[in-house]
Amino acid sequence: MAEEITTAPEPKNVSEKDSGAVEELPKSIVRRLVKEKLSEHGEISVLREAVEAFSESSRIFIHYLSAAANDICKESNRQTINAEDVFKALEDIEFSEFVGPLRASLEVPESSLSVIYLKLQEPMNFL
User: Fold this and answer.
1) Whole-number average pLDDT of the chain
2) Where are the alpha helices (H) located in 6-126, listed in sequence order?
3) Domains held by the chain: number
4) What is the pTM of this model?
């Protein structure tokens, strides 16, 4: 006897055109993030194809990380992913070097981040 396969109905407020767009990261944000990081090393141009490659690789990484975090959550018999699940997932997929900086950024109140950023931009006086 064959098992019947059913699919979940698509939400009524999401069209086929919109559902593809949900998968993409905003290119303007991706471009800004890349340029901000690369500006530390001097002026550099980023081609559209490079932005698309960064965007797609980021999307794939997010899917991979969320799947790993979801597995951890399910193993704990929970239905809600928390930050600890994400930290453990980063370790499981061999990105443990991100855990410390991520923990630190989540512990700092958002209002303090702009002050920290401005302080980091100031030249340091060693004398």
Assistant:
1) 77
2) 16-22, 27-38, 48-75, 83-92, 99-107, 110-121
3) 1
4) 0.63
